[in-house]
Amino acid sequence: MSAAAAAQQEQDIQRKLSYSAALPVSKPGDKTSRVTEAVSSFHFSQVFRPETTQRDLFEQTTYAIIEEALEGKNGLVFAYGVTNSGKTYTILGTPEQPGILPETFVTLFKKADNFRITASYVEIYNEKVYDLLATGQRRVFLQLLEKDGRVYVKDLEERPIKSYEEAKLMLETGQKNRQVGETKCNSDSSRSHCVFSLHLYHQDDPTTLFSKISIVDLAGCERGAKTGASGLRLQEASKINGSLMNLNRCLETLRFNQLHPKSERP
To answer: Within this chain, do residues 30 and 92 fall inside the same structural domain, yes or no?
Structure first.
């Protein structure tokens, strides 16, 4: 548990973890109620203990995705959760404990000798898309377009990167342009979704996209009463929650179609 969470008197509600990855979670009861505890059960493909290191998490969640990208498959990693649950820390980390994205840079440049690599970094704020790498003081939102069944961002800058250092500098530049704000839950809360994409072009065909890895730091889902949001912060929270709800619907549909291939939902 983080120092901030401890200061807010948050409690560890995980009680028992079975090998089936079903996680019983308890909620302390209201002192004025006869109910002393409510228990819910959640199912996961994998659960990581608090003592899991950033490196262990990367190796068990993302390393295989990079390997597949080098074979021509697209990859996606995203962090989802409530505000102040550790999403940005998991994706970006710290200088002492690098997150998934810096570890991806390190691994990719060790293995991608036969590839030309470019990168882009976008922010989705209040349902508008912005290029975090764009130069100039005026923020201009970009259009989402569709071609051949694929969605892309018009006029998005895609920069070549040749080393870990260049990639890290690009990430730091984008982070400075990201929208953040203070809430009761987090003094530096992300108010937007951010997508860092690495585009791989094989040297045998340097003009055709071979594969793409997208790593996403989603804004946290929020309850206005808990975060104390009002005005602009409340408007941001409404947009964030709406977009996360749509993402959840997409994932539910994908999962349904996997389980019921003969009765696919659009």
So the answer is: no
pLDDT tens digit string along 88-112?
899 999 999 999 999 999 999 999 9
84 annotated binding-site participant: yes
Is 149 annotated in a binding site? The answer is no
Sheet strands (E) in the chain: 22-28, 37-43, 75-79, 115-125, 128-131, 141-142, 144-147, 150-153, 159-161, 180-181, 189-190, 193-202, 209-217
Is 117 in the same domain as 85?
yes
Which of 176, 104, 100 lies closest to 135 in space, CA to CA?
Answer: 176
Q: Which residues contact 209 (CB under 8 A, 6 or more apart)?
A: 199, 200, 201
Per-residue pLDDT tens digits for 16-51: 455 455 555 656 555 555 555 566 677 778 888 889
**82 assigned binding-site residue:** yes
Residue 266 maps to a domain:
no
109 within a domain of the structure (yes/no): yes
Domain identity same for 26 and 66? no
Q: Which domain holds residue 7?
A: 1-47
Q: Is 174 annotated as a binding residue?
A: no
